[in-house]
Fold this sequence. Notes:
The complex is a heterodimer.
Chain A: H1 2-17, E1 28-32, H2 37-50, E2 56-61, H3 63-71, E3 77-80, H4 86-94, E4 99-113, E5 121-122, H5 124-131, E6 149-153, H6 158-166, E7 178-180, H7 183-191, E8 196-201, E9 210-211, E10 213-214, H8 221-225, E11 232-240, H9 245-255, H10 257-265
Parallel strand pairs in A: 1-2, 1-3, 5-10, 6-7, 6-8
Antiparallel strand pairs in A: 3-11, 4-8, 4-9, 4-11
Helix pairs in contact in A: 9-10
Chain B: H1 3-36, H2 45-50, E1 54-55, E2 62-63, H3 66-97, H4 100-115, H5 118-136, H6 145-169, H7 173-181, H8 186-197, H9 199-215, H10 218-223, H11 241-249, H12 257-286
Antiparallel strand pairs in B: 1-2
Helix pairs in contact in B: 1-12, 3-6, 3-9, 4-6, 5-6, 6-9, 7-8, 9-12, 11-12
Amino acid sequence: MLRFMKVIIVGLLCLLVAAPAALAGDNVVIKGSTTVLPIAQAASEAYMKLYKGVNISLSGGGSGDGIKALVDKSTDIANSSREMKKQETDLAKSKGVNPMAHVVAIDAIVPIVNPKNKVKDLSTDQLSQIYQGKITNWKEVGGENLAIVVISRDSSSGTYESWGHLVLNGAKVTPKAQLQASNGAIVQAISKNRYAIGYIGIGYLNKSVKAVTVNGIQASAKTALSKEYPVARPLYMYTDGAPKGDTEGFIKFLLSKKGQDIVKKEGFVPIK
Amino acid sequence: MTRHQKEIIIKNVFFVFSLISIFILGLIVVFLFREGIPLFREVSLRDFIFGMEWYPTYSPPSYGIWPLIVGSLIVTIFSSLIAVPLGVLSAVYISEIAPPAMKEVLKAIIELLAGLPSVVLGFFGMVIIAPWLQETFDLPTGLNIVNASVILAIMAVPTISSISEDALYAVPNEFKEASYALGATKFETIARIIIPAALSGISTAIILGMARAIGETMVVLMVAGGAAAIPESIFDSVRPMPASIAAEMGEAPFRSGHYHALFATGIVLFLMTLAFNLIADYISQKFKEVGSATL
Lengths: 272, 295
């Protein structure tokens, strides 16, 4: 009887402790920017479904970490939401790594307000002042005499990072800014609040909110591609030299019609 | 197999199951501390707890969670201000005043309230209460302390009400009979005899209700607004600790400073709810009525 008990105990403990270890090797390792992560995630899921047996291992960590991993040869693809810096390229070359950039999507971020808000256009400088909490009333930017409620994203999000980079030039967002955890939640909050301003990826725009033009330029796939629209940037995947094998397959897939549809679905501008 | 053997087997099986739940809890605590403690290689405990700035993704990052702690405490206190009278008085009504039919209906409704998913309540706060608050009081935003407190109160009422009711129910009949025999009215009996006799149980109920409010995540993420600043009025937005953890954990790079800071915030939250539970336990032990009034 006691033996029986022991079997039960050991069995339960095994269930608790033993995590099923993945023993298969990874064919493609992708690491880097959290902005690019949703694209890479959706694309790798689709790719692994298409080509059974291919194993793609994916992690975030930020553009810098991705590039570092590429230089250390611990990743096949480095996702980056910016171009590689000169020091990084130099370091890569000194280690015999030859980074090759692939633009996979364009990230365009649109400031939005409630449809009742009369403000149509804001300059990047005005946006920056608003988000730093220096402009606090709509009348200072040509609107009604109403307080501005600044809505921002959680600080981990790639959209937050891009916005901070392209509009605020690295200045800190005011701590009074409200936080919403997703593009959808921002749209929801703005559609209910005529005091509020927020920003979202261009793919999330709908009729319940009004897109504000930036420096007089309307955000669209076209103006983002031509770089006229200031709050847009290309998203990169870096490889060591020309990609080979599954890495090549994956990047080709992402640049194909199917891959670019995924890009669009994730709320980014496709490159073609 | 004798009856005695069966008895031993059953005893052991139950023992193993209780051991497993303790084991799992232990693992969670170990994991929480293992992932949170490394933060203090980067910042001091003082700068973390009392730091005014939460900018975890900038360089250099600042990991100050004081505004988050204040946010948590404020919504908890305000929600208790609403939930305690509602919960305790409804428990008094249900256990002492209501006719039996009414009692059944009310108990069922309060239990139903306890079963509402927090995301449903959060959504209610976001699309109904927030616009209403904003228009009625002409506010810049309806996602604020008041909104979050109201929703958290709705969540805490069932906890407070049902535990208080058990405590009131446990007050022995002799107490009431003695009170009536002395010529006291029903109100006097409730206010001077029954409630004081059940006070330790009611206090436990209140503290457990507060613990429920401070740990609640979805509601505060959706309706508290999420400003990581010390609020200046009750209509300002705040960001309680669970909201910050839930919003940022998903994309915080694994084992980065930000990741450790979120776990360390979790430790603070864990210690706070632990304190609430210890206080509740202490009160129910310390003020335990002796004799036939033992609760």
